[in-house]
Amino acid sequence: MSMDMEGSDFESIIAEAAGPQETAFENALRPRTLDELIGQERVREQLALVLDAAVARDRTPDHVLLSGPPGLGKTTIAMIIAHQLSAPLRLTSGPAIQHAGDLAAILSGVNEGDVLFIDEIHRMSRPAEELLYMAMEDFRVDVVVGKGPGATAIPLQIPPFTVVGATTRAGLLPGPLRDRFGFTAQLDYYEPADLDRIVRRSADLLDLQVSADASAEIGSRSRGTPRIANRLLRRVRDYAEVRADGTVDHAVARAALDLYEVDHLGLDRLDRAVLDALCRNFGGGPVGITTLAVAVAEERETVEELAEPFLVRLGFLARTPRGRVATAAAWRHLGLSAPPGAGSEQLPLEDAD
Ligand SMILES: Nc1ncnc2c1ncn2[C@@H]1O[C@H](COP(=O)(O)OP(=O)(O)OP(=O)(O)O)[C@@H](O)[C@H]1O
After folding, report:
1. Which among 32, 56, 216, 228 counts the fewest CB atoms within 10 Å?
2. Where in the cell is it found (predicted)?
3. Would residue 103 count as lying in a domain?
4. Nearest protein CA to atom 13 of ligand 1, as residue
């Protein structure tokens, strides 16, 4: 992948920003109940217990923290929680809460039993985090009015409500905030069989005929992620309608996925760009994530949250104390011969740069 690629040219179907059409499409395919949710059996069972127990006691359930990579169903599960509790869902996100006052305004509008979904909760400002964990613990916050010696704290009572927090980086949440969540679910990547079922379910909802081998093919190239499975299905549907008779068989699915440069393992252009830069530009590393992101003309977060977890999972990339390193398997996947000892420096480090 070339170094001079411009961000705007980089149309990775995986990294593409969700436009209004994409959002409408995603919403149409969202499971509405825990029973409709495919995969994540353990989380489903645990969450069902939390919700059923709360309903039986006529109490609001404990606060719930959902963590895991993007597109695995955190928003979907938050919506399901509200639906199963027959409670209104209020949606906000960490980046939208930069001041404690932003959160106080949201909390002052909360009604008893509401589910408050805070996406990207790790991106809230520190003062807002502190206000939130007070609210979660005591259903009360002190709103500070004024500045300096004249400032006064006005207590604000909040009716019992449930926070559902979603994060791709649970490790970034301060301990006191993490501790306020009575139930934490770590979402894992989906198995190919689950993705196959998700593709078939979505195809049914879209009235699209997809053969069994085609749905399995799409599922297996979806890098363990339902959002990507649905996105690929959408691209395959385009292909089937324009270049075939509108139905999706194995040949149509393969041709469409090849056209969109999603390889048999599910690597897309961004993944390959990262591996390519790592091997060709930096001799296989170690190299810092920021440098790697610059080399592929992407934001650090995009590389860190979309490409890296998948590449680590495939055993193509290792995080080491000195930076990211390509493994021998990565060199092989690119059709390159690995230098001796490639990828041998594999001491894991959680937050290596
Ligand atoms: N278990 C599942 N079964 C069926 N479809 C699913 C499942 N999980 C997610 N999906 C589908 O995948 C898409 C993405 O899910 P969702 O928006 O909930 O992910 P997310 O984890 O909240 O992502 P992000 O953190 O990026 O917002 C939705 O269209 C949803 O319908």
Report:
1. 56
2. Cytoplasm
3. yes
4. 227
316: its two tokens: 């193509």
Pocket flag, ligand 1, residue 225 (CB < 6 Å): no
- The answer to whether position 174 is within a domain reads yes
Q: Cβ(26) to ligand 1 under 6 A?
A: yes
Cis geometry, peptide bond prior to residue 348 (ω within 30 degrees of 0): no
pTM listed for this prediction: 0.84
Determine if ligand 1 sits within 6 Å of the CB of residue 29: yes
Known catalytic residue: 74? yes
Q: What is 258-269 written as a DSSP string?
A: HHTT--TT---H
ipTM of predicted assembly, 2 dp: 0.96
Per-residue pLDDT for the chain (353 aa), expressed as one digit of tens each? Answer: 333 333 333 333 333 445 667 777 777 889 999 999 999 999 999 999 999 999 999 999 999 999 998 899 999 999 999 999 999 999 999 999 988 888 998 998 999 999 999 999 999 999 899 899 889 998 988 877 777 888 888 888 999 999 999 998 888 888 888 999 999 999 989 999 999 999 999 999 999 999 999 999 999 999 999 999 999 999 999 999 999 999 999 999 999 999 999 999 999 999 999 999 999 999 998 999 999 999 999 999 899 888 998 899 999 999 998 899 999 999 999 988 878 766 665 545 444 44
Whether 152 is a known active-site residue: answer no
Tokens of 202: 């979505």
Our answer to whether residue 75 is catalytic in this structure is: yes
126 with 252, same domain?
no
CATH of the domain at 275: 1.10.10.10
